ABC-2 type transport system ATP-binding protein (Trichococcus flocculiformis), 297 residues
Amino acid sequence: MAYIEIKHLTKDYGKKRGIFDMSLEVEKGEIYGFVGVNGAGKTTTIRHMMGFLTPDEGTVTINGLDANKSSAEVKRYVSYIPGEINFPGNSTGEDFIKNQIYLSGRGDWEYAENVIDQLQLDAKANVRAMSKGMKQKTAIVSAFASDADILIMDEPTTGLDPLMRDIFIELLKEEKAKGKTIFMSSHIFQEVEEVCDRVAIIRDGMIIDVIDMKDIRYNKMKTYKMEFKSIEDFEHFRSLGYDLHRVKVDDLQLNIMIHDQDINRLIQDLKNFNLVYFKEIKVTFEDYVTQVFKGEK
Ligand SMILES: Nc1ncnc2c1ncn2[C@@H]1O[C@H](COP(=O)(O)OP(=O)(O)OP(=O)(O)O)[C@@H](O)[C@H]1O
């Protein structure tokens, strides 16, 4: 059984809003991304995982326990960063984090200090006086320092500047190295691409694709773009039977899709042609998702 299992989860808010017949599995030790536009259903799904919402249909199980019926027990395994952070009370960030570590029964203040330093958080500030970014950092420190087995995070980098986002990504990698299981929603393709093992794409409350990021990172099908010096060369190359795309006759440019195993043949063939340039077009995760949304995948 997977560490986190969502089976046929449905929460129908009417007028096609909510989540519908959603199923996914997260293995222990995975970083699992959850990507979709605003209103797609990410937060609703995550709230079910935390046991805050009761499903209309279906189940969420975490480590074999029903996330709704056994929510108190499940929370022993889980650290959570909500999408909207509102700290209760009037304490400093430091006191809040220490309290969370205490409640977790496992956490580590020394590690918290390390993360505070890395994120350059003024933890002495009162949580009520904190900016959005400071609140986000406080939530991140407390989630990481609580040393839970599972981290569930709803758009955890909201409010962080790009430098802090990079530090956060590095911290995530450290958590993964410790064997933590991480589920995070995001709309920032770059961060998802960098850290996630698998990514589910959600649209209109339904999962429309689950991508193994290895297929994107280590895709053996490559696309190269080239421009020819003469129309004769351009036409001659077109007659060789390669898989061509975006052929622009006026610019003498085209893209070729080719498997790595055929690259030597291409290089041999190209010796006979005069080129202006030749470059690889990298397929990013964003390109892939755009194709999924356009129905091309
Ligand atoms: N309590 C509720 N009552 C009625 N509709 C709701 C409720 N909660 C969420 N919805 C609707 O369900 C859909 C999914 O919302 P959800 O907040 O899960 O999306 P999201 O992907 O997290 O979006 P965002 O990135 O904007 O937070 C939206 O259309 C939203 O308006």
Observations:
- The first helix runs from residue 42 to 49.
- The chain has two domains: 2-214, 219-280.
